Amino acid sequence: MSQYQAPIEDICFNLFDVWHLNDYWQQQSELQQQLDTDTAKAIVEEAAKICEQQIAPFSMLADHQGVTLQGTEVTVPAHYHAAYQSLCEGGWTGLSGDVAYGGMGMPKALSMMVDEMLCSADIAFSLYPGLTAGACVALLQHASEDIKSVYLPKLYSGEWSATMCLTESHAGTDLGIMRTTAKPQDDGSYKLNGSKIFITAGEHDLTSNIVHLVLAKLPDAPAGSRGISLFIVPKYLPANTNTNNGTVRNGVAVGSIEHKMGINGSATCVLNFDNAVGYLIGQPNRGLACMFTMMNYERLSMGSQGLGAAERAYQNALAYAKDRLQGRETEKDASKAEPIIVHADVRRMLLNIKAMNEAGRTFGTWVASLLDKAKYDNCQQSAAIANLLTPVTKAFMTDQGFSACVTAQQVFGGHGYIKEWGMEQLVRDARIAQIYEGTNGIQALDFMQRKVIADQGKVLSALLATIRSEINSHTFTHSTVLLTYITKVEQILALLLTQDSRSQNGNAYDFLNLVSYILYGYMWYKTSLALDGNKHSANFIAAKTETATYFYQRILPKADGYVAILQQSPTVMDNIAIDQF
Amino acid sequence: MSQYQAPIEDICFNLFDVWHLNDYWQQQSELQQQLDTDTAKAIVEEAAKICEQQIAPFSMLADHQGVTLQGTEVTVPAHYHAAYQSLCEGGWTGLSGDVAYGGMGMPKALSMMVDEMLCSADIAFSLYPGLTAGACVALLQHASEDIKSVYLPKLYSGEWSATMCLTESHAGTDLGIMRTTAKPQDDGSYKLNGSKIFITAGEHDLTSNIVHLVLAKLPDAPAGSRGISLFIVPKYLPANTNTNNGTVRNGVAVGSIEHKMGINGSATCVLNFDNAVGYLIGQPNRGLACMFTMMNYERLSMGSQGLGAAERAYQNALAYAKDRLQGRETEKDASKAEPIIVHADVRRMLLNIKAMNEAGRTFGTWVASLLDKAKYDNCQQSAAIANLLTPVTKAFMTDQGFSACVTAQQVFGGHGYIKEWGMEQLVRDARIAQIYEGTNGIQALDFMQRKVIADQGKVLSALLATIRSEINSHTFTHSTVLLTYITKVEQILALLLTQDSRSQNGNAYDFLNLVSYILYGYMWYKTSLALDGNKHSANFIAAKTETATYFYQRILPKADGYVAILQQSPTVMDNIAIDQF
């Protein structure tokens, strides 16, 4: 595997030239003092160093070592300790945390870039700080001041880590049927009993305490998802609420760890709650909404996982394609071979990855910046678009990430299948992001019903209208093509709005894909506008310009397949009886 | 994982009702005495028993145990011995072998069905008999009578096994630059020196001898692929050419075994040849052509690997979807959940797999029957179409097989990522078939240049014309749709014929996919014609009819994406300099 090099130039291009985030940051009172272009770049470069030097070189070792369970103790790969310590010491674990509790207060657009690099370096490792950051978002928004003051500083500093405990063996997507219970105690606390599975970082030896955010049911809870409450259940309880040292062992313990396809450095635990002491977060029976604050944060991070793995896979495949001598295009001597990057089909594979990765990075930066605008300006329009795009980020970026890893593995031929090259690990690791935090099928349903149909397509239509208006104001080489596809999406949207919900659900996955390809077209439009001969090298401009053309000519037309499918009704799926499958 | 059940009904439907192979067999003097519908069905059922009972239940164990190397001995998973013995005792190892040398003389259409079942049961296991069968085809066609009489009986009986030794560490696709040498000896034999990698079943403890078919270069060989010769190099040399007992250890030994993403029960070896004694097969410097006899056989078997894994994955996903309770469509009680097969998006996933698997089985049977017609009738037209379709079988069926496994894994949600459910193994195992025996990118180039462009699209055009004529003679519900797509392929073909070879190569992969989808449409046409209320149950007919509709409405339209891509020139790929990637 080649040495990972963080794509710093492209990250800065997206932050500053495509999305002009420095200008935005300078308008925000909370950011203008501490964040300008140079600071942001320095932050990216420092994070890149840790990823490149302390994490990425050992990701195959982490896969090989995996995690081990002895008794109730879980051991992570040995080098994770030093790498995690570096994250803590640099303040990276609190990068986007609230300054009032010791966080660095950086915007999501910046922390998402760091997420991508961490995921390129080692997805399994990235989950330890990643889940903590998500939990902090939920606590900050929903927890009491007492809880926040005890837990947030320890979580931001990385001294403690956090989990999200949702799934039970019989209840994954359908959380409403969960069985874990929480019984109110006289002192205002709760006693939790039950068992949770698939708990990432549920037990490990990286931190002195682990804080579980747990969904459970109160005794009088209504049936279904409206009867779920959220609790904070630390592994070690602070001795009293005024100290923030966890000292008393709580009734939560790991039962077993899962043996998985990949992300072997991540401890995926069964956690048993046996009269574990917990504290309610938010309102009774409103826990799912609180947890979704964290879940939505995680869903964006999933996009970073897809992109991170795809970027690493691309770098490896590119290095191999330049190095591997096989066949010839211009060489006449049959005993001499040329690097395989000269072959048309190898270029097809590399460009398919490159064009989607770079659009993905632009897309991720966009969605993160919308969340920032929702937070700092309380901009409802930005919040609505971020809400619309969250399932797209999760599903499309992870599907594309996996696909990119598979394609990059293919560039290696037989060597791609051998463990020592590291490509098969990227495929195994990237696969999970399509599954967890709500499968991509669930994302598609969320997109279709909650994000599109619920408001009769209003937010999506407005977004498409804005894009059309932008393109009409500032045309570019591929304006006509992109406008044509926007019209196609609008026509399909109009058709979907006439359908019953069953048909809409049957169309959800293909519609999410259709919209995603067109939005990636919009990303290449924004990229094209941002190219400036005074700021960028001729090589950079040429690469972006031609990759954009490749996207419009050789990738975007895939959307025609989705259009053609969506023009047909999916009702045939219900003509097949269960015993005819 | 659910218990594998061989799809005997669908296999027989394809053999007898879709392709009427019993009628064909009865017209062949070599087959009519020994093969009728009942015999064929009995053969399929007997093979199914071994696959269902002796191989499939232990495939996860085989993955877990893997192969081990101690010194120069390789040990396969323990239960492989009994399963392999059953294959030998039943004559399965010589199923398609020539009767003159102890084979059973069965047609390819039948042995391909057995291949599929073996691959469903355990791809890694299937490779041991699979490579032997391929080697026998090459030996039968190219070896001297002396060689054939010594080796074929032992290989057909399964007492010995065989390998194909092509790849070297620096030479995979580009075999012309290989370095292994063969030096002529006074007794007519050769001494081989060199090292080969990725040798499937290169060393193992299933058979008493292993026969290597090795590509090497003679001292005076011309450079490139026209300077390669084929040799037979047994692990144990027969004491003299008149005995067929291998007794003298030859100078070939395993150097190491590869650690792979999957097919862990298959021993993938580095083989070192140190003055190994070999015998020339076929003409000097014409070895590549001889080896391609075997390679083409293997490429069809790759199709069976894709289909076999996909069938197993489908059965598992279907069982899970019927069993797993999550969410509700008609149930009103929020505390009760329904099987996930009620959900539209789960049906989408299952039907995408089912429609492609069944078309794939029809397709594989077709290609195999064309090979049979080329063999028994010396039918040049059938041979030409089989030749055209070989890379399609290899590439499209393995791409679809992998995709089906990934989709089936997705049906399981988080459980699909956990080893104990077996789905992640299917994904890992199916992945290799896209890579070995010529990567799928190489298949696409072969299809484009050697199979389509070389004859100016003549065979492909004739095939499309035949299909159109068939549809016009016997119309069916989806005639118009299918005819429209055939016209689209013809238009793209006309366009390709005007392009330079560089553009054609850039278009190769997408064109192979386009043609494949349309041919799968033809398969569903043939299926629809074969449904007969007197022979098939109403359930069977309904399932096929609705799945066909699903294919035409929800899968075939994907072809529009490929059409749209192919209407654009791929030359943009060459506008990007290597340092701009």
From TrEMBL, chains A, B:
Listed GO MF terms: flavin adenine dinucleotide binding; oxidoreductase activity, acting on the CH-CH group of donors
Residues in Acyl-CoA dehydrogenase/oxidase C-terminal domain copies: 285-448
Domain Acyl-CoA dehydrogenase/oxidase N-terminal: 37-159
Domain Acyl-CoA oxidase/dehydrogenase middle per the UniProt entry, residue ranges: 164-275
Keyword Iron: no
Pfam families assigned to the protein according to its UniProt record, in alphabetical order: Acyl-CoA_dh_1, Acyl-CoA_dh_C, Acyl-CoA_dh_M, Acyl-CoA_dh_N
Classification via SUPFAM superfamilies: Acyl-CoA dehydrogenase C-terminal domain-like, Acyl-CoA dehydrogenase NM domain-like
Coiled-coil regions listed in the entry: none
Entry-linked InterPro entries: Acyl-CoA_dh-like_C_dom (IPR025878), Acyl-CoA_Oxase/DH_mid-dom (IPR006091), Acyl-CoA_Oxase/DH_mid-dom_sf (IPR046373), AcylCo_DH-like_C (IPR036250), AcylCo_DH/oxidase_C (IPR009075), AcylCoA_DH/ox_N (IPR013786), AcylCoA_DH/ox_N_sf (IPR037069), AcylCoA_DH/oxidase_NM_dom_sf (IPR009100)
Cofactor(s) demanded: FAD
Catalytic activity: 3-(methylsulfanyl)propanoyl-CoA + oxidized [electron-transfer flavoprotein] + H(+) = 3-(methylsulfanyl)acryloyl-CoA + reduced [electron-transfer flavoprotein]
EC number annotated for this UniProt entry: 1.3.99.41
This protein's UniProt keywords: FAD, Flavoprotein, Oxidoreductase
Domain Acetyl-CoA dehydrogenase-like C-terminal span(s) in chain numbering: 479-570
Function: Involved in the assimilation of dimethylsulphoniopropionate (DMSP), an important compound in the fixation of carbon in marine phytoplankton, by mediating the conversion of 3-(methylthio)propanoyl-CoA (MMPA-CoA) to 3-(methylthio)acryloyl-CoA (MTA-CoA).
Family the UniProt entry places it in: Belongs to the acyl-CoA dehydrogenase family.
PANTHER family from the UniProt entry: ACYL-COA DEHYDROGENASE, BROAD-SPECIFICITY LINEAR ACYL-COA DEHYDROGENASE FADE5
Protein's name in the database: 3-methylmercaptopropionyl-CoA dehydrogenase
Annotated organism of origin: Rheinheimera salexigens
Lineage of the species this protein comes from: Bacteria, Pseudomonadati, Pseudomonadota, Gammaproteobacteria, Chromatiales
